[in-house]
# Entry
Amino acid sequence: QVQLVESGGGLVQAGESLRLSCVASASTFDYAMGWFRQSPGKQRELVATQTTGGSTNYADAVKGRFTIFRDNSKNTVYLQMDSLRIEDTAVYYCNMGPPPIWGQGTQVTVSS
# Structure
């Protein structure tokens, strides 16, 4: 079974940047990839997705600040997060599919 491993989370101050990485144990070439996040007491929400053709989709809350990109030669999808805000604090999950496969999540905490 394909596994996804996220990394790159941490504690940063508002306005700073982080880059999340998600490495798949199998080829990502034929799959859409995405990032989702979940804050305490809230449902998991879409952050960004990228199709196999390279088309991207972003949540309104992160448009212009976050960028999703992939390197299929490394079976890796990235999420570049700039101008981070306190409200971006969440556990970020990598997703691959269909069918949907999830990583274990990485914590991002943004402080004032």
